[in-house]
Amino acid sequence: MAFADDLTEQVLLQDHSIFSECLLPWTHLYEIARFFQAASVKERDNIDLAHWARLAAPATNPADLRDLLKVTKPPLAISPSVNLAFQRATIDDLPRLQKSIAGHIIIDLPTKGTELFKTRLSPPEFAKPNELVRKYGADKFLIAKLSDQLLRRLRVSPALQQTFKKFCHCPFRIGNRRFFMFIRKEGTLRLVWTPEDDWLSVKYFINNLLNLQLNKNLSIAKWVSRMTLIISATNPTLDFEPQNIHRVPDLYTDSLIISRDLLDQVIEGLGLTYCPSAIQGIIKSTKFIWRLGRPDEIKPGLIQLWDCQIGNARQNVFIKFQAHRYCHRAGSFIMVDYNEAIPLNKCLNMGQRVKSEIMTDGSGIISREAATKICKAVDRSFDALPAVYQGRIGFAKGLWILDPYYNPKDSTAWIEIRDSQWKAEPCNGFTFHFNLCRISRPASSSQIGKQLIPLLVSRGVSTETICKDLENYISFTIQELNTQDPVRLVQALTHNSGSLQSIRKAALDRMASIVHNPSRYRSFKDDPQISISEFDSIQFRLTPDSLDAQTLSPTSTEEQVVTMLASGFSPNCRIIVDKLRKIKETRIHNAIKFKIPVPESTYVYAIPDPTGTLKENEAFIRFSDFRDFSTGIRISSLEGPVLVSRSPNVAPIDAQKVNLVENEVLAETYFDVLVCSIQGQRSLLSLLSGGDYDGDQVILIWQANIVEQFQNAHPDNYPPLNIERLFEDVQGGTIDKHLIGLYNSDSKAFVRKAQDIQLSGLFKPYFAGKYSYHHSTAEYILGSDNPLTLKIGEIYVKCLDAPKAGIVLKAKEDAQIFKELQNELKKVKDENGKLLVFKNNELPIPRFLQESEKRSSNDPTFKYKRNGNLHVLDALLKVGYDALRKYKTEIDDRDKASHKTRFLAARDSDLSKLFADQKRLYEKKNSIKGSMEIWIGVLRPMQRAMMEVAENYRGMVLSTKHDREQDNLLKLEYGGVLEAHKDDTKKKKVQLKYAGFTYEKAFQYVPEEQDLKLHHIDIKEYHQFISAYLEGVGPFGYSLLKASCLSMCVNPEAFVPYEVAFREICFLKALACQAKSSVTFTLSDATALSDSTITPNCIQTSNSAVGLVSTVSSNLTVPTFSRVPHAITATCFLANVVKTGIVQKRKQVNDGEGSVPI
Questions:
Q1: RDRP core domain: from which residue to which, for each copy (predicted)?
Q2: pLDDT band at 3; cut points 50, 70, 90
Q3: In the chain, pLDDT over 70 holds for what percent of residues?
């Protein structure tokens, strides 16, 4: 089907009168559209939409529509998180829940021979929290994601670009709703539905987002950028009263000081109700900025002035002070003036004026009262308030710093917004809500990467130093994870694992108060009863605290090991040993791929000094909870030289050595942030690849052997290059020029013009990736100080922000730079004195890039030695892979030597004992009445099912091994990564097989006819015995029995029990360890194995596991479904394993495991 020029709309689901009559909720209408789209063209003719709508209308959960409508070819199922939310929602909750669900569309290239783009509706999902969703509701929007193939083609095909524009001009219809595209961010479009359903309402909607008339002088590029602020992921916090928003100017290198006495006079004259931290004034038609000085900086009544400001004044200096003051009558900020004649004897001449450079770009100040309310809004509790808050307020964005001065009488929630943060003018009466992005957190150790490492070497740090650090890290990683002390092992897995800390922080972010209430979301009542089918998507199969929804196993391997240690497993357990090996290899591989941990480093926000007390080239940092890597002693602050760097690292000045000092004023307020001086010729972050203070983070390194060798590159030796001429403006002009006229005359033309402007960024080439490789190649061969390397580096940095700035590298300049680089490389000789030769005039790829990024072997690569020395990254690869090869050889030899011993080793009886005791009791006919019925009706079917699960798992392992071998062959030829989640899908099928053998189905099992005849079993008595047994065991005990059976049906080293029943296996081990020792186990009050009897129909059982199950069940709330409580895998429980002493007390307990490490 060709794309028609006169096409008016894209129909995903045709309209029908029933949709208006039934008033279907948005999720229900969207699901009907998905089912309709999934049907074939022939099947759609037979679908009765009116019947579907009537069936769907009474339902409260959209996930139920699949069964209600009896869809024959259902698409992907609704995610468990959405399904569970609707299951738990009350009638009053449903309207709010509907407003939080967004529809998603995938747009792909047109089918061959047509111009109609392929669209596929994805399952509805919770919308990411942002200002747009909170204001209008997610149910008014569609989120369209463009495929990677489409994005690539759109950048190079003008014909496809025109077709795509026409496609986006047409609204998308879903039933009685039409959605109009209105905004783009990267490769995602957003479409809006308005109740009026016309172009006029869409025009008003766009204008309401950012008032065009008030911002008519804003450039088109900035308009596009400002619009995306409302869809940035943020958390709501508090509304600021307009009068409590203080608009202040930025500080510059030429900003001077004004005393409080004089500023108070100016404040009174301007009619301000607050004291700003800075004030703007005009002298002789030139603007200047003064900051409020401390009493020890300037005497009362004085002001500092430059010589040019004083000029020929004899008695007074006339200054027109200005400020933005909120006017309640106008409902907006207005500029007010106040003229002051300052006596010459009150002016301090500071000499010749220095060059003006901004020092506070992107950062403002927030009051302690406001910061407290923000923390409370996001449900956070801190011993001390976080130092910085990154967020959005109106059309202002950036980083807000806690007020440095504590005033107990100040109970007002106020915020200062600097001119560099104020991006656009809001409409009159605008509500200023602070939308939080992130806050500062306790600092932890960081790492150095492939851009920073060559920069360090170019500034004097030896290659041997970096290689030695890598060797030490690999050696330490292997050594610390080889310990047989469970306490030390837990510490190594938790405190020294950045990935584990990140996972835990993410889990705590999703459940803010869990740190104070570990039982929250973890009762049986809240245990996620999720129905998982093969249609579900892998990535959604997680509980709210990042556990696998099926096995309740932590997703992190480190967390799994900590859980097993806390449950009672020995560090010598083969499963733990294998997982520890994977952890070691992962850490080593990450380090080899140029993510080398540096213990004496950290990664934190950088902020300008709000007090002005730091001198030039000084900085300050204080930690809330940072410990020395070697001693474990807590470090509160640092003094002395330190390296500061910010990504990207492309120029020698992108890392600077500064001096850390103590500062009593700053120490009272600021933790876990780097406070930078506002003195000097340039701000520290502007030196580091043109950074600013709107949320940039920097890495600090104080490791002695690196800092001592590093030599600063002086900024004067690397002046900024004039590369602006290499770029062209692709979104030129202003709002007034392009949009205002159409807004006033033609609604449809205006909306389509706005759509074209939003889409234009998709049609321009993105050079950042290309110039990243160009810079790596130039630095590899020519060196970091080469003028061409420096030029390419600056172009690369410029390209990173080019889409936001509305510019693009000119095609002819791109070709010229490529030619220059080719010509420069052709002059280079190898170590034998021969000129380097490159095939087909292609630029080579450095060897370290091919090996670290797994590029195709067909790409032209080479290894180059400059001045006879390996490049530092090549040297690191050699050192790393040699160490990894040595480690693997050692463990392979150890495995071969111990294979027979391990294979013949006794299985862990703690896991299999529960089922083994039951089997021994009931397998053969004995004096216990009903024993044969229990064996044939419960235990034997369970054993057969578990053996089948074990066999399926073995098949899955063999199939996965074969697939990986095939994938590796294809990767060698073509490069890249093939199908994701393939292994997970196969594993899930085995887990589903295990989960399908449920407690409820056990009641329904009927033995085969020959078994009934052979053992003379009466079917009526059979059901009585089975029911009595299962009711005595209970769902909790049945799940333990099933896991124990699986453990008995596999060899001692099998992984399958841990893959499909992780929680139950850990619980079995914990109960067994508790029974063997006097240690008070905190997971439950479950008692040890004991004799017990149950007497339904006179059945007597003694010394059986049923007694254990009954005892345990009596101490726990048993749900109506068969799962063990997952407190054992609670995030906070794991985080406090050592603190509670569970592992520590178990150190002296003989748990029956072997003591020889494997």
A1: 117-293, 356-826
A2: very low
A3: 83
